[in-house]
Each structure stands twice: as C-alpha cells, then as structure tokens.
Amino acid sequence: MATANAFIQLKSKDGLDESLLSEEAGHRGDDFPSEESQSLHTPNDEGIFQISRKIEMGEMAGLFFNQWGIIIFYSALILYLVGDSLIYSTLVARSLAQYFANLTPASWGFGLFLGIFFCFSLPLCYFDFQKTKLLQITTLAIRNISLYTMIILAAIKVVKGGRQDSDVPSFSLSALPNLFGGAVYSFMCHHSLPGIVTPMRNKSHLQRIVATSYGSVIVVYILLFISCGFAFGVTVKDPLTFNFPADQYGLVGSLLFLFPVFTLSSTFPMLSITLRNNIDTLIQFVSDKGSQKGASLPPPETSRLRRTILTLLAVGPPTLMSYIAKHANISVDSLVGFTGAFAGCAVMLIIPAAFVYCSRRAFTKAWNSKKGSRMSQPTNFHHSPFAGQGWVIAVLAWALLSLIFNTYEKWTKLPTA
C-alpha cells in the first residue's frame, strides 16, 4: 500500500490523472485526512510512502499488472468470494435445519432454510451498503463472545469429564489440505487492510498493531483447538457450534447454535455485493479488451437490468452449489479446505507477492524516469522485517508447493471407476 501511494504520488507530479484510478468496487476511493498527509507535498521524498490514500487491491492490479494479470487477479478473487458465499449459505442453512429439526423433516429441512435464506438475502444484495461501522462492531462483538464462550464451555467439560482425545491421531498427512484451507480463511484479511489501515491517523506503530492482532488471533485459535480437542476428541462435530446443543447448555447452547446465522447473515449481503462488483468490473474489462495497459479499470455500469442480472449471478450459483454439496455429503470442512487451498492460496500468497514485486519494479522505473538513476531511492519506512526479494520468492515457492500438494491430495481422493 505504501509503494502504491508513492507510485501514484510520483506519477501525479508527472501529470497522471488520478481520476482514472478505480477501486475494486468500480469507483474512486476516498482520501482520508491524517496528520501525515501534508508530508506528501513537501520536498522530502521520504513522505511519498505515507499511506494517505485508500488503494484497494483492484486498484493495485490496475496500476501494476498487465491485462492478463488483471484478468487472473479478478478471476481468483471471484472464485474465492464464490467459495465464501457457498460456505456462508451452507452454514446458515445447516444451523437452521439442525436447530429446527423437530419441526421440519430431515430430508428437506436444509433445502427449505436455504431457500428462505436466498429469498431473504437477494433483495439486500441488490443495493450498496455505505455505512457499516455499527454492523461490523456488532458482528465483531458476537464473534468474540461466541469464541470465548466455546473455549470456556469446552474447558469446563474437560475439567468435569476428563480428556476425550485418546483416539485422536497425533498427525494425519491427509488432513493437511483442509488445515491449510482453514488457515487461509482464518488469517486472510488482505483485501480489508486498505480500508482498515488508511484511516489511521498515527501509523508509526502500524507493524506492532498488525503483529499484535495476528498474535491475538493465534492465541484464541490455539485455545479453541486445545479445549475442544480435549473435550470432544474424534467425536467433534462440524461446524464447532454443533457441539453445544441446547438440551445440554440451555439458552447459551441455543445462541451458540445460531451463532453462524446471526453473524453470517449480516455479512453475507456485503460479501455478495463485493462479488457482484468484482464480476461487473471483470466483465467490463474483458469486454473492453483492456485497451490501455496499466490504465484504470472501467467503472461498472449501473442500469437496473444489469445490476439485477449481476446480483443473481452473485447469489444464485453459490446457493445452488450449496444445495448440491449438501446432497453430495460434502462437509463444511471440505468446502473450506478446497476453496482456501486453491483460490484462497492465490489471494493470500500469490497475489500479494506479485503486488510486492511488480509495485517495486514500477516504482523504481518511475523514480529513475523522474529523478534519474543517480539519485538514490527513498526508503519505505513501512517495510516489514521480511522486505527482501528472497522472501517474495520464498512465499511464491511455498504457494507452489502448497498447490501441488493440495492438488495431489484432492486427486487421490477422487472416486475411481
């Protein structure tokens, strides 16, 4: 993000029209005022690395990738979002069907609640959400309360009933693809970072804040894994909230059972809107054949018919695939593992590494063109301890090995004739 800001600022001095730059959502991003923003206009070249403009991943793709790179970027992002929508739909419908199992026959309960969820979500996905701060805070609070509640209940179960993990294998190579996919979903927030980081006024401790956030997440996941692993062993249910039924845990169990319904239903429309906008942007770009390399992505058209069709494309296929996956007895864990292992791997590892490499190369070229090769480049003071080119290569190598291993594991599990 810092290099993209520096690149735009450097090119703007050469007369680049910043209005040509667009976001993933297909419109210009907002500029956030900050204490540091004035340094962008000072003679100090170090100031151009200030993160004062929100530059989404789609905008970075338009800045640094060629035509095929933009197409691959949006294709991977769309596949990842489709997988997300599929998992959300499945979890909500499964939770409702299980909770109301006494009221609906098991054979068509899932399909009924999936249809209700589709009809409820579709109108919301047609519009655009602008003010989501309260919704995000509420969802965050519910998620954290639910996670800590499950950890406490599982720990109490272990204390009262003893450990139940005697049959759990210490290591299973075949489970690695699903573990990798789950890890991708657990820790991937790259697409949200521009909107989180840019409004911060004081970014001097940015690395410490990010490291603390990731460290806290790791601690919570380890506690959840250990407590539930000891409490339920090999009998643990998927999803995890199903291990706390209402007949044993009362109202708390009911709320935990409906936890996916509350949180995922609130974020599903925003996810589908993002998917719709990305589909629209990709269609526009392909139809225009990316006529100008490095130029911005065309702003999506907003006609009612076009938006209706795109909304149906964003919500319909994931819902249909959720129904098919249920009747094919594909678990949520497998859906998470498959989506995260492929599309998630591209969004989490390959695309960010490509951004780093291409942005550095583009900035160096622009700097040499503006200042001349004899003048040394300013230092990006936001760079991480892993800023060397070797780390970029290492990330790409790890992504390649992960894709090869995951593909092999999925292939060997395919049914034979």
Structure characterization notes:
Helix 5 packs across helix 10 (259-287). This protein is 65% helix and 0% strand. With 417 residues, it is mostly helical. The protein is globular. It is built from 13 helices and no strands.
Gyration radius over CA: 23 Å
What is the strand tally? Answer: 0
Which band does the percent of strand residues land in? under 5%
Q: What is the straight-line distance between the termini? A: 50 Å
Weakly predicted, low-confidence segments: 15-43
Q: What would the average pLDDT be, to the nearest integer?
A: 80
Largest sheet: none
Query: In DSSP terms, counting alpha (H) and pi (I) runs of 4 or more, how many helices?
Result: 13
H and E order: HHHHHHHHHHHHH
Helix content: 55-70%
SSE-based structural type? mainly alpha
Write the layout of secondary structure elements.
Blueprint lengths: L1 H11 L44 H8 L2 H33 L9 H18 L6 H29 L14 H12 L5 H5 L8 H27 L13 H12 L1 H29 L16 H24 L4 H40 L17 H24 L5
Helix pairs in contact: 1-12, 2-12, 3-4, 3-10, 3-11, 3-12, 4-10, 4-11, 5-8, 5-10, 6-12, 10-11, 12-13
